[in-house]
């Protein structure tokens, strides 16, 4: 899917490296959002640099599951609505396309509920925005892919003229950070996502697949919603909303993610997607090569950003020089284990449905979900989709001891 334009944008500032624009925005007030988006896109040539009159443009947000936007789990609907307005002003027709979460069927009632609870239905009515309830998908061949040479993609994504990627600034227990690049995994329908987790339970292989999917989609523009971001044990209810007051944008989604990580103080070598992208030559691997125009990156840095619990864990990117690569490989299974908690667990079975290897069951007698450690592949989908923040991730056995002495924790 080629979405690049050949025309040059006159007057737009173009540094030597990838252009990542940044703007401040304190909240989701419509007027302030419009001003911030105008400032954000100006160095990139404005929305007219990315869409043409008469085109049909998919807006791909992050709607992990049906939840309100104040929890920082989803791309805020007001941002999506304002981007849609800019697309319409440029003469194109925007349509929101998304398949919520892992472990849920991509069916119209599920999509409708997610849009409604996330506030998208209201925004669509106010902005005259189309929401896609299409459930068809197609398997496509991607011969140029490194790993995922055949992927399942939502039909509406295949039928539009271009895609604008509207991601959320969030931590992620499995992938460390989820921003522009990983957001494109949402073009894979419902339960099909779980199959990828089951087949690719190694972080590096999963990251390679994410890159294959993202570059197949080839968004023309990626915007990251960091007005209200998420820190801690994201990307779901285990994370903590954090007001950052920023928006980032660029044509190069990997560069946008690198800028996000620099702002949060996340080492890019610990982010599997960025490490894999570096090895593919999709960016230099030198963090200083990615700067921001608009608001300088140095002014946006968050000094006390809370990392996910997996950040220093074995198999993610151990920061201790005491453990070399062979030992990390030997101990790769010593990651945190999902532990549902009685009293917080409501037996809703979202974790059971979301588990790609069927390692979770509902213990009706104990009134808490149970995880079979022998089956668990440490993908943390259960933690991700739990609507009650009832699943903690804890070290067990020898890993608990290593955590106590500061090697893996």
Your description of this structure?
- The protein folds into two domains: about 280 residues, Rossmann fold; about 80 residues, Alpha-Beta Plaits, CATH 3.30.70.
- With about 400 residues, the chain is of the alpha/beta class.
- Strand 10 and strand 11 form a beta hairpin.
- The strands form five sheets. It has an eight-stranded mixed β-sheet with strand order 4-3-2-7-10-11-1-12. Strands 5-6 form a two-stranded antiparallel sheet. The chain has a two-stranded antiparallel sheet with strand order 8-9.
Q: What is the percentage of strand-forming residues?
A: 15-25%
Task: State the CATH class of the largest domain.
Answer: Alpha Beta
Largest sheet: 8 strands, mixed
Shape call = globular
Number of domains: 2
* Count of DSSP H/I helices: 15
- Indicate the low-confidence ranges by residue numbers: 1-14, 313-325, 327-332
Q: Could you tell me the mean pLDDT? A: 89
